[in-house]
């Protein structure tokens, strides 16, 4: 029952993670998932080698390597990353201003660092990896009654219970308390620094935005709705076109009742789309206006110029980054 409940909660978390449309909620879910992963890692996977020279590398790797992996995963899962790649591939990043590039990269990096910073912060606050990494560097002179001739080889074995002489085991609580104090101090300073940077970044974003608060909220809602509708419509279009090609090859196609109804209703409108049109609606977009009316996305811009029949203006406008 406990295992089933755990699986159920994990599925709920994953569902919320991918359905969340608010950046703050999304980042909060990322942080909570990272905390859960870090806790599980400490319980099941963290084992200090208790060996001079290895402790330091293992402790730092336990903090740094998962953080680096989480950062790279965050960059790869961010749609803006691939929008930027498409922009540079299709249009060679023409007219890419420094301000626009800074804003875009800031968005990508800002979303990607949530998980690694959470991992590093929780690791430091727990103190386990830091204690393993630096126990061999503790100054024996700072411990009353500790043998001065004892080297780092003995100090490195302290995190592993029962690996040091009995007469020295009484020093371990003092060593552990000192190292955890240092680790948690660094962790809290990291938390404070991140909080300050986030606050300043939000202030700069609000002050530099050309839109009011309500219009920004509407723009975010529009992007979310457009993305959802685009993906669902693309799925229906792909199914209809695939059904046509499969039927041409086999002479028939096996469809469910829902798919048959979908094909009957939208089959005439599901015409092939030219690569040029795909390229025009693919890439980076920040914000533009046309005669005072906002254009909220590349698709919105494409539809506006296409409706007006201004193909020359569309070709010129679509090359603009922002």
UniProtKB/TrEMBL annotation:
Keyword hit for Ion transport: yes
Keywords, comma-separated and alphabetical: Ion channel, Ion transport, Membrane, Transmembrane, Transmembrane helix, Transport
Which gene specifies this protein's sequence?
calhm2
Source taxonomy lineage? Eukaryota, Metazoa, Chordata, Craniata, Vertebrata
This protein's name: Calcium homeostasis modulator family member 2, tandem duplicate 2
- Gene Ontology biological process terms in this record: ATP export
> Family assignment?
Belongs to the CALHM family.
Membrane-crossing ranges are 23-44, 56-77, 98-119, 185-204
Q: Where in the cell is it found?
A: Membrane
What's any one GO cellular component for it? plasma membrane
Record's bilayer topology term: Multi-pass membrane protein
């Amino acid at each position: 029952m406990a295992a089933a409940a755990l699986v159920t909660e994990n599925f709920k978390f994953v569902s919320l993670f991918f359905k969340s449309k608010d950046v703050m909620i999304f980042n909060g879910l990322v942080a909570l998932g990272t905390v859960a992963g870090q806790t599980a890692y400490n319980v099941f996977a963290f084992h200090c080698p208790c060996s001079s020279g290895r402790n330091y590398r293992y402790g730092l790797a336990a903090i740094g390597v998962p953080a680096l992996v989480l950062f790279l995963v965050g960059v790869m899962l961010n749609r803006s990353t691939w929008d930027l790649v498409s922009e540079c591939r299709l249009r060679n990043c023409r007219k890419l201003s420094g301000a626009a590039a800074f804003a875009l990269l800031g968005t990508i990096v800002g979303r990607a660092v949530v998980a690694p910073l959470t991992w590093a912060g929780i690791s430091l606050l727990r103190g386990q990896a830091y204690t393993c990494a630096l126990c061999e560097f503790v100054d024996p002179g700072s411990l009353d009654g500790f043998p001065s001739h004892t080297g780092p080889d003995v100090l490195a074995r302290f995190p592993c219970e029962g690996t040091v002489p009995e007469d020295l085991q009484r020093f371990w609580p003092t060593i552990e308390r000192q190292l955890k104090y240092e680790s948690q101090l660094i962790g809290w300073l990291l938390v404070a620094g991140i909080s300050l940077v986030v606050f300043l970044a939000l202030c700069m974003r609000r002050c530099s935005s050309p839109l009011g608060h309500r219009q920004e909220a509407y723009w975010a809602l529009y992007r979310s709705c457009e993305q959802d509708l685009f993906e669902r419509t693309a799925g229906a279009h792909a199914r209809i076109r695939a059904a046509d090609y499969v039927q041409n090859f086999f002479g028939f196609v096996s469809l469910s009742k829902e798919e048959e109804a979908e094909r009957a209703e939208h089959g005439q409108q599901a015409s092939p789309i030219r690569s040029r049109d795909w390229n025009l609606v693919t890439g980076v977009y920040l914000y533009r206006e046309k005669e005072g009316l906002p254009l909220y996305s590349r698709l919105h811009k494409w539809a506006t110029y296409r409706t007006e029949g201004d193909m020359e203006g569309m070709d010129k406008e679509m090359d603009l980054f922002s």
